[in-house]
Amino acid sequence: MNKRIPISGVIIPLLYFISGLVLIFFNVSIHESFFNSISIFKFSYNFISIGIFCVIFSIIYRRLFTKYREVYIDFLGLFALFQFIWTLYCCFLFYEFRTPYFLYLAVIAFSFFYLLIYERRIFKK
């Protein structure tokens, strides 16, 4: 029998890691495009902190997937809840700032939520 693996353990950490690196290294240009203002500081520490969170989250997520596959499958519901809360938060940020980037983030987070719920249903014991 062909052993199935959850694809979310590969896709989600990869995208979080790439987005974290982009937020860390291009924080000033992202700040300028998000808020339509020129940053007076050399670094935008808010975007750097979000980028560091994304990198750390992706490393923990991937390590959990590779080392403890059964625990990862048991935690799919918790990860889905996190993605759903992140979707709601991005919708709130879109409502607050009226920047389309937050709406894009909400769509991506909702797609991750849907993927995790789908995998939870497939790998349910």
Give an overview in words.
- The chain is mainly α and 125 residues long.
- The chain has two domains: 9-67; 69-125.
- 81% of the residues lie in helices and 0% in strands.
- Helix 1 (8-25) runs antiparallel to helix 3 (45-67) and helix 5 runs antiparallel to helix 6.
- The longest helix is centred in the middle third of the chain and has 23 residues, at 45-67.
- The two termini are 17 Å apart.
Strand proportion: under 5%
Mean pLDDT: 89
User: What percent of residues adopt helix (DSSP H or I)?
Assistant: over 70%
Structural class: mainly alpha
Write down the domain tally.
2
Q: What's the helix-strand series?
A: HHHHHH
* Model regions low in confidence, pLDDT < 50 over at least 5 residues: none
Gyration radius, rounded = 16 Å
Largest sheet properties: none
Features:
125 residues
Question: How would you summarize the topology of this molecule?
Answer:
Blueprint lengths: L7 H18 L1 H9 L9 H23 L1 H6 L1 H22 L2 H23 L3
Helix pairs in contact: 1-3, 5-6
Could you give a short description of this structure?
The protein is mostly helical.
